Recover the amino acids of this structure.
């Protein structure tokens, strides 16, 4: 069984490169049969210049979907073979205009005839296939413009690894993990304050016995995430002490902890969730917005000097 049959769509890029190599080598045969001294890779740039003699390199790059550097290299090759020349723009002397030379212009009619024949042959080729590759490429390019392959792979990885994450209720044996997870991010960006140490050193006394709750995230037999619900008053709880280990970030653990905390707050009869944070923590703020929190100015003064934003989520 060959490589592509084994790997499947994961090797899409390599399969396309193989197809490109095949098409390019056969295109060279086409040019030779028309006795046109031309390299296939020049065609998009040459065609753009021949169709409009007022184009700059950046214009050509945008039109054919190639980088500025790639187009510049092709232009140099075309100049070397005497097919194009570079002229200064009339309105902007700093921008060079690419135009055909007499030699390039004499080549253009033959290339047009060849292009018409190639188009008909390619359309016949596509008609032999069940799936129209040309239309499929357009669809794939559109889909990738909406979400890159890298982000799609990251989402699949997060989903796969996230399925291995377990949300646990707090137990006293997890106190060192609860403390260290929070000290790590606090010390990285701010300074540890007295209210931090009271809650982290004595979570039973300052969180649980006051009607609060603590959730932990376990991954690969390690505690890698934590968050707490602190009872404030009546039907309001504060979402606090949320932390994810640096080695476990990017797995969606923060979002899963947040969702679990919201569900737990509803079970506890909460109608409002409140939190305090700092705008320096951009990923955290984005997470809170994703969970449905909105900025509020209705909160009481914070006991933490690092707090510069308060947010809330109404549960009913």
């Amino acid at each position: 069984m060959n490589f592509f049959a084994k790997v499947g769509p994961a090797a899409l890029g390599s399969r396309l490169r193989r197809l490109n190599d095949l098409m390019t080598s056969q295109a060279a045969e086409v040019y030779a049969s028309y006795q046109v001294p031309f390299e296939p890779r020049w065609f998009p740039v040459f065609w753009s210049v021949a169709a409009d003699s007022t184009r700059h390199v950046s214009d050509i790059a945008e039109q054919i979907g190639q980088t500025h550097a790639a187009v510049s290299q092709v232009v140099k090759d075309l100049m070397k073979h005497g097919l194009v020349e570079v002229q200064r723009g009339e309105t902007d002397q700093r921008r060079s205009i690419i135009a055909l030379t007499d030699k390039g212009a004499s080549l253009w009619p033959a290339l047009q005839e060849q292009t018409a024949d190639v188009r008909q042959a390619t359309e016949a080729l596509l008609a032999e296939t069940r799936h129209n590759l040309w239309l499929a490429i357009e669809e794939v390019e559109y889909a990738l413009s909406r979400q890159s392959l890298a982000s799609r792979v990251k989402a699949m990885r997060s989903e796969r690894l996230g399925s291995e994450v377990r949300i646990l209720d707090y137990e006293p044996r997890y106190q060192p993990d609860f403390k260290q997870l929070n000290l790590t991010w606090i010390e990285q960006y701010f300074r540890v304050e007295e209210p931090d140490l009271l809650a982290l050193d004595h979570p039973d006394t300052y969180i649980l016995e006051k009607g609060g709750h603590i959730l932990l995230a376990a991954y690969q037999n390690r505690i890698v995430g934590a968050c707490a619900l602190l009872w404030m008053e009546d039907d309001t709880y504060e979402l606090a002490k949320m932390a994810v280990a640096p080695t476990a970030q990017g797995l969606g653990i923060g979002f899963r902890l947040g969702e679990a905390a919201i569900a737990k707050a509803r079970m506890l009869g909460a109608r409002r969730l409140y939190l305090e944070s700092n705008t320096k923590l951009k990923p955290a703020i984005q997470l809170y917005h994703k969970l449905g929190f909105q900025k509020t100015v209705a909160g009481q003064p914070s006991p933490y000097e690092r707090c510069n934003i308060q947010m809330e989520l109404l549960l009913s």
User: Anything to note?
Assistant: The chain has 13 helices and nine strands.
